[in-house]
Design brief:
Chain lengths: ~260, ~450
């Protein structure tokens, strides 16, 4: 088995898991139990794919768009396992799988080159591992918060809404420290080592800061001002959109130093 | 004065500032920063006047952005200072005295009777809280009852203050950097030396190497540098990308490399169309005129050279990069005051005749693939703000751990004497993650009942 096959295998299994999640919306017991098989198998294949890619390329598996999309999908699946240990939230599972499938589909698209490219000098650093993996992990938690917030906004039942509100906060409470550490602090350290300055108002830097401001706003309005529910959910959705823009938009719309991924 | 303080410490101000900072930071990325006025005028037309007033061409150094950051800092200081004393009191000298009524506000609460005197029941509770669960226990006795307070992980209350303090240190680092940092670009040939701005020492490049991958892409640049301080060679070391060298507060970075096209002599071959055996090669630097002393050929001049030829809007010729991907030279050959040949010559396309000056010429001109002499680009940077940035980052990270993972908990109890035994009211609260705390609370009550 080589990396592209394992990746495709994981992709197919994630689609099956997505179908199981949707079926679980109607009959929760059996399908939420069964979903562990395709999801676990997909995650295992995906993990092996990432390891093989690392071995083959000799560098971290997130140095271009294809690799980082693959890693982000993997992180979202991993975060789902951690977050819904009891497998009690089929709706969250469905929507997260939708995000994973979209990310994997984007990674598979012919527009995104898949070849292994040697690292340009600036990327040859151990900070690549720390900076990118911790940031993407934080963003995977933001994805969970995004899904629960969307569900909050469109859900009618009061007890469900309370649950989604709580889940959204829990995800941000984990994602925010990770994003701060990985995205901003590790980013500053690496920028200092590679470019000689810790902060240079590069568009990607600015957009991570914008994302950070929005999640800081979420936490302040919630913890100190007692916001919850719809207002909080909207802030969490905007925060995730900013995170997505930091991730994609800056690469394709605005030119800057972070032009690799 | 008092209302100004109130304004500064208000959370509404924080909210407004976070939104404004997010919006203004984002706007700054939509407009390219720090370009020349001509470029803006060409790109945005009359709209340029508007954002010149708004200082959008240097958004992150504009007075309004710095003003926002200043207000943001003051807001953080004010919020923290106004909350800190009360928090400190709550943790060190808390208000212990309580009553069954007041305990009703807790979400997690219970009331039960125990067949021992209040003092003994309180003693048991205190032991179970302090020894088994590491609560700090405070007790206060009044005529009617005994109040007990247990606090755990109180340092978690200061998480947000620590985060804010870390942020302020980082901002102070930013200010220090923008006031005191020095940045010098040192383009150095092997053997060359330069002095970084403001430094007392010289940097000499001993050796410069470019490493390539098998695929031909650049893998790394390595520069062996010698520091010359006070006439003495004090240190020699090799730097590469991501591995700078430190000396006397300066960091020396391998920032890139350059190719010295200005000093590169281009090899030009001239052939006469009517004399197939005639061929003359000559080396000419860009801008130079070389006399050929040949019958029918007086001189050859390279008017312009680009290593990576491209035509941009308006027919202007530019170089896409410094690499010799598509080297082209504008060459003129003169004879007796008339132009025998003029036009662009491409080394990748030897037969191509660009324009009438080449097409109608009696000579053909060829440009050999040129190779420029590479030089190392070293960046010497002194940034006194960096240390503050690392200290601030460390404090901020620690604060985040305190704020999110140390969940301060509080348990209050009131022991009231009954005709026989004690009526115990208990209530507790924790910041976040109530499930684990609920278990802790229930276990505690079970143990108290059975003790």
């Amino acid at each position: 088995m080589n990396e592209p096959n394992l990746f495709s295998g994981a992709f197919v299994l994630y689609i099956i898991a997505g179908v199981f999640f949707v079926l679980a919306l109607f009959r929760r017991g059996i399908w939420m139990k069964a979903v562990i098989f395709p999801l676990g198998a997909g995650f295992a294949l995906h993990t092996v794919a990432l390891v093989l890619r690392t071995v083959a390329s000799g560098h971290a598996p997130f140095t271009n768009m294809y690799e980082s999309l693959s890693f982000l999908s993997w992180a979202v699946v991993g975060v789902y396992f951690v977050f819904d240990r009891k497998r009690a939230y089929p709706k969250i599972g469905s929507f997260l799988m939708l995000i994973v499938i979209l990310l994997m589909a984007l990674a598979s698209s012919p527009l995104i080159p898949r070849g292994i490219v040697p690292l340009i000098p600036a990327l040859q650093s151990w900070w690549l591992w720390l900076h990118v993996s911790v940031t993407l992990l934080g963003e995977a938690f933001f994805a969970v918060a995004f899904v629960s917030s969307i569900l909050y906004i469109f859900s009618g039942k009061e007890d469900k809404r309370r649950l989604y509100d709580k889940l959204s906060y829990k995800a941000i409470a984990v994602g925010f420290p990770l994003f701060t550490l990985g995205g901003l602090i590790f980013g500053m350290i690496w920028a200092y080592k590679a470019w000689g300055r810790y902060w240079g108002w590069d568009p990607k830097e600015v957009w991570s800061l914008v994302t950070w401001f929005i999640y800081a706003l979420y936490l302040h309005t919630r913890v100190v001002m007692g916001w919850a529910g719809k207002k909080s959910a909207i802030v969490a959705v905007i925060g995730f959109l900013a995170a997505l823009f930091t991730y994609f938009g800056v690469n394709y719309i605005i030119e800057g130093l972070h032009s690799y991924a | 004065m008092k209302s100004f303080w109130k304004f500064l410490r208000s959370l509404k101000l924080t909210i407004v500032l976070l939104i404004l900072l997010a919006v203004f930071s984002a706007i700054g990325t939509l407009v390219p920063q720090g370009r020349s006025p001509e470029e803006y005028a060409q790109r945005f037309g009359p709209a340029y006047q508007i954002f010149k007033i708004l200082q959008l061409d240097r958004a992150y150094k504009s007075s309004w952005f710095l003003g926002l950051l200043m207000l943001f800092s003051l807001n953080m200081i004010a919020c923290t200072l106004s909350r800190l004393p009360a928090k400190w009191r709550h943790v060190t000298r808390p208000n212990v005295k309580s009553s069954p009524d007041r305990l009703k506000v807790f979400k997690i609460k219970t009331t039960f009777e125990k067949n021992v005197p209040p003092a003994e029941a309180a003693e048991t509770a205190s032991r179970l809280l302090a020894r088994r669960r590491r609560f700090r226990v405070f007790a206060e006795k009044s005529e009617r009852n005994i109040s007990l307070l247990g606090l755990r992980r109180s340092s978690g209350w200061f998480g947000s203050d620590i985060v804010h303090f870390g942020m302020l240190v980082i901002l102070a680092g930013g200010i220090t950097s923008s006031l005191g940092s020095q940045d010098t670009i040192l383009p150095l040939f092997e053997g060359g030396q330069m002095r970084p701005e403001g430094a007392a020492f010289m940097v000499r490049l001993d050796k410069f190497e470019t490493e390539y991958y098998e695929e031909g892409m650049i893998k790394d640049w390595k520069s062996t540098l010698t520091i010359i301080d006070n006439g003495l060679q004090v240190r020699t070391g090799t730097i590469e990308v991501n591995r700078p060298m430190k000396y006397k507060g300066y960091n020396l970075y391998q920032s890139g490399y350059g190719l010295n096209w200005e000093e590169t002599a281009l090899e030009i071959e001239i052939r006469k169309n009517e004399e197939p055996d005639f061929s003359r090669s000559v080396f000419v630097k860009p801008g130079q005129v070389v006399n050929l002393q040949e019958a029918g050929l007086d001189s050859v001049a390279v008017r312009s050279f680009v290593p990576d030829f491209i035509i941009v809007e308006g027919g202007r010729v530019m170089s896409r990069s410094d690499e010799p991907h598509n080297p082209a030279a504008y060459i003129e050959i003169l004879n007796g005051g008339e132009r025998l040949f003029y036009g662009w010559v491409f080394s990748n396309h030897p037969g191509f005749k660009a324009g009438p000056g080449a097409e109608n010429s009696p000579v053909s001109v060829f440009l050999k693939k040129p190779r420029a002499f590479p030089y190392s680009v070293i960046e010497a940077r002194r940034d006194p703000g960096t240390l503050l940035i690392w200290i601030g980052s460390f404090i901020l990270s620690a604060g985040l751990v305190f704020a999110f993972y140390l969940r301060p908990a509080e348990i209050r109890m009131v022991f009231e004497p009954l005709a026989e035994g004690t009526l115990i009211s208990a209530g507790g609260s924790v910041r976040g993650g109530a499930e684990a705390f609920r278990t802790l609370f229930e276990d505690l009550i079970r143990e108290m009942r059975s003790a």
